[in-house]
Specification:
Elements lengths: L7 H32 L20 H18 L1 H8 L2 H15 L7 H32 L5 H19 L2 H10 L13 H40 L7 H15 L2 H12 L3
């Protein structure tokens, strides 16, 4: 049996041959793809073009339309913030986060599931408000019956009514005092910039109250399990590991998701 001694020169030549073969194979594939592409008719593979430029406006309507498009894109860019600040999303997602912490499941349900469920519940709760905004503002504006300013004013009315319904007077008075505004005679005199933060802290307080109520039954289970383990002398066994199946069993038996979703929807007066 012959022993082959590999020298550095042989190894380098072998590596160079392999690299050259790979490059040759790649060049062959590229040439074949180019030949196939050129053999196809030009109309078989249409290539889109995009042109962006500035031109002189022929009339004021073109300028107004351009500004409206820019405003629409601006609103779309801050749409997530509007969804968080001016709808029921904040209360729902915080309540679900408290529920997951009370159950002791660190990542179950995942964040994507909780956010998706919160979004769909938000759309369900806000559907009457969105329908009013569509009927009073969007459709008349698209039919050119009202101006953009009138559409904005009419569109905010149902949303402001929803926020006023969920905002505490104490929170609203706090921001009115910071804004150095006189006591308003009616709701129309309250600025939207004052109403939004008052609505937000009211929603946070309500969400934390719901979280406290959610924690109570699961906290009792944790205390009972910890007491039983301590009496049995099993101090090294984590109580959370033992209590989590019992908490899941209790949550399933009482149909917890149905109760929580129904309670959250009822809390908004739907």
């Amino acid at each position: 049996m012959k022993t082959v001694n590999s020298r550095p020169g042989d190894i380098s030549r072998l590596t160079a041959n392999r690299v050259s073969r790979v490059l040759l194979l790649g060049a062959f594939c590229l040439a074949a793809a180019t030949a196939l592409f050129t053999a196809l008719p030009c109309q078989a593979v249409p290539l889109p073009t995009l042109q962006i430029g500035l031109d002189n406006a022929k009339n004021p309507e073109q300028v107004a339309a351009t500004i409206e498009i820019l405003l629409i894109f601006t609103v779309l860019s801050i749409a997530p913030a509007i969804l968080l600040m001016m709808t029921s999303f904040t209360r729902i997602i915080i309540a679900f986060s408290f529920l997951r912490s009370a159950l002791g499941t660190q990542s179950m349900p995942p964040n994507q599931v909780l956010i998706g469920l919160s979004l769909f519940l938000t759309f369900f709760i806000m559907t009457p408000v969105l329908n009013q905004m569509n009927q009073n503002a969007v459709k008349p504006y698209l039919d050119k019956k009202i101006s953009a300013e009138q559409a904005m004013t009419e569109g905010l009315k149902p949303l402001r009514a929803f926020m006023f319904k969920q905002t505490r007077e104490k929170d609203l008075a706090l921001f009115l005092s910071f804004a150095k505004q006189a006591k308003p005679l009616n709701r129309e005199e309250v600025a939207t910039s004052v109403l939004i933060p008052a609505f937000m802290i009211s929603e946070l307080k309500t969400a934390f109250q719901i979280g406290f109520v959610l924690f109570l039954p699961f906290l009792i289970i944790d205390m009972v399990v910890a007491s039983v383990l301590l009496s049995m002398g099993m101090m090294m066994l984590p109580p959370v590991m033992v209590s989590m199946p019992f908490k899941l069993l209790l949550f399933v038996l009482v149909d917890g998701w149905n109760l929580i979703a129904g309670s959250l929807i009822k809390s908004f007066g739907v």
